[in-house]
């Protein structure tokens, strides 16, 4: 579906809420704040905490005051650390 200059594409095999935004005529997804924030949350839900943290850091490079990205980064970093007792960090 194209709306103005933005194409919205749903990807098979991913959550229905995963939507990639792409400017018309571009081969790559634009480096938008919303894209990285949403993809980071998807990685987090898939327990891919390092990839999630990388996307949240990208958001913070774009807007260092982005509170949601900072909070999600903290969660991803905490979840990726091994716990003291050797158990699962995200339980």
Automatic annotation (TrEMBL):
<dbReference type="InterPro" id="IPR011990">
    <property type="entry name" value="TPR-like_helical_dom_sf"/>
</dbReference>
<protein>
    <recommendedName>
        <fullName>Tetratricopeptide repeat protein</fullName>
    </recommendedName>
</protein>
<keyword id="KW-0802">TPR repeat</keyword>
<feature type="repeat" description="TPR">
    <location>
        <begin position="33"/>
        <end position="66"/>
    </location>
</feature>
<dbReference type="InterPro" id="IPR019734">
    <property type="entry name" value="TPR_rpt"/>
</dbReference>
């Amino acid at each position: 579906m194209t709306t103005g200059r933005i194409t919205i594409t749903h990807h098979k095999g991913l959550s229905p809420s995963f939507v990639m935004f792409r400017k018309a005529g571009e081969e790559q997804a634009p480096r938008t704040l919303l894209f990285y924030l949403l993809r980071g949350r998807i990685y987090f839900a898939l327990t891919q905490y390092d990839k999630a943290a990388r996307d949240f850091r990208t958001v913070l490079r774009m807007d260092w005051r982005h509170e949601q990205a900072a909070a999600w980064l903290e969660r991803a970093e905490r979840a990726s650390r091994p716990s003291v007792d050797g158990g699962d960090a995200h339980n």
